[in-house]
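Consider the tokenized backbone below.
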């Protein structure tokens, strides 16, 4: 179990959610990753996934 309960924040990511929900999810994920071990392969992967999702959010914001 993670600090968020049953699932990692990535598990709650749905690209069709409202922009405010996506931004909140990304912020929570960034906080957790910022205190994580940067040498851990899973943490590095999660940073890359966060970057991809941030790009998606930017696209959504540009279209709204």
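A designed sequence for it:
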């Amino acid at each position: 179990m993670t600090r968020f309960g049953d699932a990692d924040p990535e598990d709650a990511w749905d690209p069709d959610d409202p922009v405010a929900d996506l931004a909140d999810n990304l912020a929570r994920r960034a906080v957790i990753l910022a205190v994580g071990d940067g040498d851990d392969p899973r943490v590095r992967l999660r940073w890359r996934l966060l970057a991809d999702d941030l790009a998606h959010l930017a696209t959504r914001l540009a279209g709204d």
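The first helix runs from residue 19 to 34.
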